[in-house]
TrEMBL record:
Classification lineage: Eukaryota, Metazoa, Chordata, Craniata, Vertebrata
Name this protein carries in UniProt: SEC24 homolog C, COPII coat complex component
Gene3D superfamilies: beta-sandwich domain of Sec23/24, Sec23/Sec24 helical domain, Severin, von Willebrand factor, type A domain, Zn-finger domain of Sec23/24
UniProt biased composition (Pro residues): 8-19
Record-annotated Sec23/Sec24 trunk domain positions: 500-744
Organism: Pongo abelii
Amino acid sequence: MNVNQSVPPVPPFGQPQPIYPGYHQSSYGGQSGSTAPAIPYGAYNGPVPGYQQTPPQGMSRAPPSSGAPPASTAQAPCGQAAYGQFGQGDVQNGPSSTVQMQRLPGSQPFGSPLAPVGNQPAVLQPYGPPLTTAQVTTQLSGMQISGAVAPAPPSSGLGYGPPTSLASASGSFPNSGLYGSYPQGQAPPLSQAQGHPGIQTPQRSAPSQASSFTPPASGGPRLPSMTGPLLPGQSFGGPSVSQPNHVSSPPPQALPPGTQMSGPLGPLPPMHSPQQPGYQPQQNGSFGPARGPQPNYGSPYPAAPTFGSQPGPPQPLPPKRLDPDAIPSPIQVIEDDRNNRGTEPFVTGVRGQVPPLVTTNFLVKDQGNASPRYIRCTSYNIPCTSDMAKQAQVPLAAVIKPLARLPPEEASPYVVDHGESGPLRCNRCKAYMCPFMQFVEGGRRFQCCFCSCINDVPPQYFQHLDHTGKRVDAYDRPELSLGSYEFLATVDYCKNNKFPSPPAFIFMIDVSYNAIRTGLVRLLCEELKSLLDFLPREGGAEESAIRVGFVTYNKVLHFYNVKSSLAQPQMMVVSDVADMFVPLLDGFLVNVNESRAVISSLLDQIPEMFADTRETETVFVPVIQAGMEALKAAECAGKLFLFHTSLPIAEAPGKLKNRDDRKLINTDKEKTLFQPQTGAYQTLAKECVAQGCCVDLFLFPNQYVDVATLSVVPQLTGGSVYKYACFQVENDQERFLSDLRRDVQKVVGFDAVMRVRTSTGIRAVDFFGAFYMSNTTDVELAGLDGDKTVTVEFKHDDRLNEDSGALLQCALLYTSCAGQRRLRIHNLALNCCTQLADLYRNCETDTLINYMAKFAYRGVLNSPVKAVRDTLVTQCAQILACYRKNCASPSSAGQLILPECMKLLPVYLNCVLKSDVLQPGAEVTTDDRAYVRQLVTSMDVAETNVFFYPRLLPLTKSPIESTTEPPAVRASEERLSNGDIYLLENGLNLFLWVGASIQQGVVQSLFSVSSFSQITSGLGVLPVLDNPLSKKVRGLIDSLRAQRSRYMKLIVVKQEDKLEMLFKHFLVEDKSLSGGASYVDFLCHMHKEIRQLLS
Ligand SMILES: [Zn+2]
C-alpha cells in the first residue's frame, strides 16, 4: 500500500461554509443562518456497532435547538456521569497488536540519512549503556561534591535565598489592580553584587543554530545545585550528562558555535545531521492527508526548521566583554520570526513542523494537523527512547486550548453528524476516526493509528480506496482530512443517557456593607440589565438558550422568583446556611426575554433594598452550594457568577479566618499560604464538577480574603477568578465592566470531559490547568471557555519509531451553549528522532516556559519556593548541558553554547524564577501571589510569554503617522531614554512611563498640562485630546487591551517618582528588588551550572 504518492486535491471545505455553523466564537453577535446541522458527509446511519458501550437507555430526543428550554422540576439523579467516550481507559495504551502499520520507506522525518552511530566520537556518544542505580547515585553525589570543589565566591548577585542588606524605600502604591495591595512595610533588601568582570564574548551574529557566549572562566556566584525536588522524569537524568569521561578538551580554536546545526557549512562532526543541502523539506510521514509538498504552499520553510536565524559563515569568537546587547535578545528573536514567518500561512499538512512563534501573526490552514492555536508542543520531534528523553531533560508537553478562538479568517471546526451510530472509533483504544487511520483490505477495515488494532469499517461508512490506498472520499470528510473537527454526540455520550438541557447562568451578588458602600452593587445591577441581552448563543440563533437566575447574599441568602407572569419579583430568604436548599424551582431560572420586565424591576430594586445594610459578614460556600443545587434541580449544567467582597467569616460551612502571615515567606511553611484553609472547598468543587456547575469569581477585597482558598472552586470547575483590590467605582468600573462583559459573553463548553490519546510509546502522565480529575486520564471540566488551556505532559512507555512518528488526539466532550452535546477532536502528528540534535532543533521555548512555570507554580503547594527555583535552574542547566555535550561542536569550555531554538530559555526562565509567586517583592500580597498562581495555571503560551517577559514599547521613537505598533525594546532600565515615553504591558498590567526630560510639547499633547511636574503620578486615564499623538497613544492602548483576555488598567508612572519602583518590577532583565538576578548575571550563573555538569 502506498499512500504517499497522491497529489492531494484541495479539500472542498477548505474555507468556511455556512452550512456548518461549527463552534462560532462570536455567536452571540447574532449571525443568521441555519441552526440545524446539515448532514453533508454521508451520515452513517448503520446499525450500532458492536463495540459501543452501554446501549442507550431512557428517552432519547433530538438535540434541542435554541428554543425555550423544557421546564423541568424533577430532581436530577446525582452521581457519576455515564460517558460512553471514556469507558476503556485501561486499554488505551495497551500492547500493540501484532499487526504492524505499513510505512513507506523514505518517510523519515527529514528525509535525510543520519550518520551512522559508529562514526560518532566517543566523547559525543549520546547514550551509553544504561546506568545502574548505584552508578547514578554515585554520580549524583559526585556532582554535588565537584560543585563544592569549584572555587566559588560567596553568592551575592543572584539572590537565590533571602536577600541581604540594604533596605530600600517603602513603597505604597496606588491601587493598581493586581498589585493594588494594602499599605506595605519595607521593600525587600537590595543585593549589591557587581556584574562579572571579564566576561567574554558573546556572539551576536552567531550563525544559525546555536548561540554562543563566553562568560568568564571564573567568578560569578555559584548556586547550590540539585537540592530541590526532582522534576518529573528527571529522576536520574542529571548524572548521565555529567559523566566524567565525557569531558572534552577544548579545541585549540573555538569553532563557530552551532554550525553543525544548520547552514551550508563545511565538514561536520559525524554525529550530526546533514546540513541544509541534504536537509530536505520535511516529507510527510505516512500520516496526514497532504502527501508531499503542497502545490500551493510549497514547503514554506525549505531550510532547517529553525526560525529566526540566518545561516552565516563560521567565525571565530573574538573575546570581549559581555554586554547586554550581545546576549540573546527576546526582541530580536520575536522580530526575526515575524519577518520570516509572518507572511505565509502555516499549513499543517506536514508532520512535526514547528509553528511560528506565538508573537507572530500568521494564518493557519488545516491540512490534517490541529492548528497551533489549539495545540502547541515543547518539541515537535521527540526522542525515540525514554533514555534519550531523560538525558535531554526537555519536558515533553503539549499546551492544549481545545476551544480556542480563531481569527475571523479561519474556519471554525466542521461539525460532522454520523447519525444514531455516532462517531466511528477504534474498538480497542476508542480513538476517534482521524486522518491518520489507515484503511486496508480494499477499504473494508481500518487499522488504528494509535493502538494498531484492525477494525471493521461499518457498511455505511465503506468507501473504495484509490491506487494510493487512500479513501476516495477522504477530502469530503473532515474526520479524514482535517486536524480539527467536531462530531455530534449521540445520547450515549450524555449524562444519564439523556440529552442535556440548555445551560443556565446564575448571578450571585454580595450585598453586604462593603459591596453596597463602594457602589459595586448598583453598578453591577445596572450593567446586568443590558448585558443579559448578550448571553452566548450558537450559530444563527436569535436568542440565547441560556436561562438566568439571581441570588443576593450576606450572612443569609435571598432567592428571587422572576417568573414572567409576576408583576413584581418575589424574594425568598434562606437563613439556614448550614443546610442549603433552593426554596423555589419554578420561576428561579428564566428566559431573559420572557421575564425581561420582572428582571429589570429586580435589578432596579436590589441596590435600594440593601442601601442601608449594616451587615458586614458574608458566607461563601453556602452560596455556591445553592447555585449548584439550583442547577441540579433544573437538570442542567451552567455557570455561577459570584461577586464577593470579604473573607467569609460568618458562621457557616467554609467559614475562614485570617491566616495571612508574611513571616512565612522563605520558610518551609510558605507553602501553606498557597493551600486552602479547609477541605470544604474541594469537597464542594467535586460536587460542582459532577453537576457541570462552573464558578466564575469576581473578588472586590479591601483586605486579605484568602484567594488561595476562595479560588479552589473556580479552579477545579474550569472557572475564572478576577480580583479588584480596593475597588472604587470611579477608578475601577471600566476594568470591571469590561471583564464582566467579556466573561458573560464568551462561549463556554459545559460539563466537559477531555481525554488525550497517544500512539503506542508515549502517554499522557500529568495535567496542569483549571479542572478536576477523578482518575488518571480524564480531565473533567464543569466549564471550559476559549481562554483556558490544559498543559499535558507525556512520558515514554515504549520505544517510538522514527517512521511512524507519534500521534496525539485530544477529544473534548462537551455541551454547547445551546445544549447540544458534541465532541471536538484535535489531532497532531509529531516526528520522532534518534539524534538529540533533532530534538533540540525542533523545540519551542515559549511552550517550554509555559510548562515549566505551571510545573513550578504547582510545586509551591508542596515544596519550599527555593527548592522549586533550584529545581528549575537544575533542569535548565541539564537541558543545555546535554545539548552542549551531544550536539554542539567541540569548543572552549569558556563558551556558552545555546541551541538556537532555546537561546531565550535562560532569560525567560529567569523571569519565571523571579516572578511574584517564586520570589515575591514586598509590595506583593499573599492574595496577589495566590491570584497570579491561579491565573498562570490556565494561561496559554502567548499569555505566559508576555506575562513573564513584558512588552515595552517606546512611543515617540517612531514617526507619529506610523500606524503599526512600535517595535518593542528589551525590558531593562538601560533601554529607557529619559526624553521618551513608553508603554509596558504584561497581559494584566499596563504602565505609561514618562521620562523626566520629556519634551514639553509631548506633555501638552498627551496630558494637557504644561510641564512634567504637573503630570499626576498614578493617573489612570489619559485625557481625550484632539491631536495626533494623543490619538495614537490612546489607540495603541486600546489595541493592546483588545489583544488580552483581561482588561489592563493603565497607570501613569513618572521617572524618579515613588511609583517607579512598581514599574521597575516589570523590567525583568534587571536585578529585582526582591533579589531576582539580572539577565546577565543569570546567564553567567547558568553557564557555570552547565560547566559544572559537564566537568
Ligand atoms: Zn486504537
